[in-house]
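Report of the visiting student (M.T.), summer placement. My assignment was to run the structure pipeline on a short list of targets and document each run. The first record concerns N-acetylglucosaminylphosphatidylinositol deacetylase.
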Amino acid sequence: MGWVLIVVSLVVLWVASLCKILRGSSSPSRSLFLNTGGALPKRNVLLVVAHPDDESMFFSPTISYLTSRGHNLHVLCLSIGNADGKGDIRKEELLRACAILKVPLQQVKILDHPDLQDGFGRVWNHTLLAKIIEGEIISYGIDSIITFDNYGVSGHCNHRDVHYGVCKFLHDTSQGTIEAWELASCTKYDNSCGLFHCP
Ligand SMILES: *[C@@H]1O[C@H](CO)[C@@H](O)[C@H](O)[C@H]1NC(C)=O
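After the run finished, the structure tokens were exported:
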């Protein structure tokens, strides 16, 4: 009988922690963020970032949340972050971070495209981004996208272009069932950080 009590208390604890997360959020759309509640189907999620380290600096709580709930996460990093000539090192670091964050390495893609190089003042073509993102969506049957908002947390133009590339994809696609979430930037005027449904 002892183990039954242990299982019951674990379930109660799990439900209690889930409620806490739900109550802790102020926005209804945030509280529904990919919450399976244990019953709904698992999602195929694509996280789209600009540079290696974006995943750790900005999205590691999101990644941990998703993998701990059994969602299938893919990471698309659109550059190796070679602005200072350290792209090869940064690429390795991204792979190591993903291993720690429990994202299968075969689900991590890091591009080194001549038109999508890391740097301030480098404009990334939104049509090209949308095309690349569409390719990933189709290849892996993605149903949810997570990315930066239009400020891109730090204001880096590459982050902002990634946001607009995702928006362009969402605007052009005929697949109406894809959900997209953006990480709300904290600015001097507004500290409501967190993930929100793309408008
Ligand atoms: C942007 O990318 C698209 C798709 O690859 C291409 O057709 C278009 O010419 C590009 N635009 C510019 C300004 O480079």
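Confidence is low (pLDDT under 50) at residues 5-31. The radius of gyration is 18 Å. I thank the supervising group for their guidance throughout the placement.
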